[in-house]
Specification:
Length: 342
């Protein structure tokens, strides 16, 4: 079947998507600069799917290397674009890094396909909604001023894609606005692999449970939520990976909504930070040490998605619940403890 370029293919979501693409009969080709991932993930993927995927190490911000790569791979039928800097807090501290990495990589890919048709799935985010007025938030909700440079890069990237698709019918684009990916593959061979101190909640939870971290800081306990902690729509990374395969399939058969479309990818359920901690304790049997800290700059209070459009038009629905998310993340952390990858 078709060859699909997966940028950021050794990363957290990218690696799981590579596995699901292979299962669906596609041939994934990976590009990653390894700035936030490990080359050893290729071996882990091979253990799951039985073959080592084709891999190229370079930075998509290098226009010459992008053009050279695309020129040597004329049979690529689709792109799933993950490669981007993605930590909200870091983006507040270093906005130029985010604007440089996230825009140049996208624009270079689009420029390379100006003259030939391409199916393009973009890794977007629910951060484009800001603090939603109505919950659950659907795709028709207004895009609000971003609360972080990271969120702003997703908003502007969507605008770039929409305007580019409008101007050139060669581009066939779906932007997936996803919520909070967590969990790991059922094999416990791939999962979230943060460099240094995790920016996301669940790796911090699992690293605390295994003894790498002393305690978890819950950023804010005075939000307007039932227990005072922020609420998110957590989605299992395997479900999220399958949504990207569904998006490629929809683009291949022709999206009746035209050559630019957006979909929410979540479970439609909101869990507070404290509920997530307690769900992990239940799934793992581990008691967690946590404390409350000040609110974190750039964070929103609560968000979860209306996923009806994805169910009806993308033909995709999340299958795995909070228990599977937490249990799989714990199995991955235990695997890492015995088999260090970085």
């Amino acid at each position: 079947m078709s060859k699909i370029l997966v940028t950021g293919g050794t990363g957290y979501i990218g690696s799981h998507t590579v596995v699901e693409l292979h299962k669906a009969g596609y041939t994934p080709i990976l590009v990653d600069n390894l700035s936030n991932s490990s080359i050893k993930i290729l071996d882990q993927i091979e253990k799951i799917i039985g073959v080592k995927p084709e891999f190229y190490e370079f930075d998509l911000c290098d226009n010459e290397k992008v053009n050279d790569f695309i020129g040597k791979h004329p049979d690529i039928a689709g792109i799933i674009h993950f490669a981007a800097s993605k930590a909200v807090g870091e983006s507040v501290q270093n906005p130029l890094k985010y604007y440089h990495n996230n825009f140049f990589s996208l624009i270079n890919l689009l420029e390379a396909y100006r003259e030939k048709p391409i199916n393009f799935v973009f890794s977007s985010s629910c951060t484009v909604y800001g603090e939603p007025d109505v919950l659950p938030v659907n795709e028709a909700a207004p895009v609000k001023k971003a609360t972080s440079p990271y969120g702003n890069t997703k908003q502007i990237a969507e605008e770039i894609l929409e305007e580019t698709a409008k101007a050139n019918s060669n581009y066939n684009v779906i932007a997936l606005r996803y919520f909070n990916p967590v969990g790991a593959h059922e094999s416990a061979l791939i999962g979230e692999l943060p460099n240094g101190v995790p920016a996301n909640l669940l790796p911090f939870i699992t690293q605390t449970a295994i003894g790498k971290r002393e305690k978890i800081t819950v950023f804010g306990n005075d939000y307007d939520t039932p227990d005072g902690s922020a609420i998110r729509d957590y989605i299992h990374v395997v479900d999220l990976a399958k949504a990207h395969v569904a998006a490629i399939k929809l683009l291949e058969k022709g999206n009746p909504n035209g050559n630019y479309d957006i979909f929410n990818v979540g479970t439609g359920n909101g869990y507070s930070v404290l509920e997530a901690i307690h769900a992990f304790e239940k799934a793992s049997g581990q008691k967690l040490n946590y404390e409350f800290g000040p609110r974190r700059e750039g964070d929103i209070i609560k968000v979860w998605g209306d996923v009806n459009k994805s169910t009806k038009e993308l033909g995709w629905t999340a299958q795995l619940g909070i228990d599977e998310m937490m249990a799989s993340a714990w199995e991955w952390e235990k695997y890492l403890h015995e088999n260090p990858i970085q």
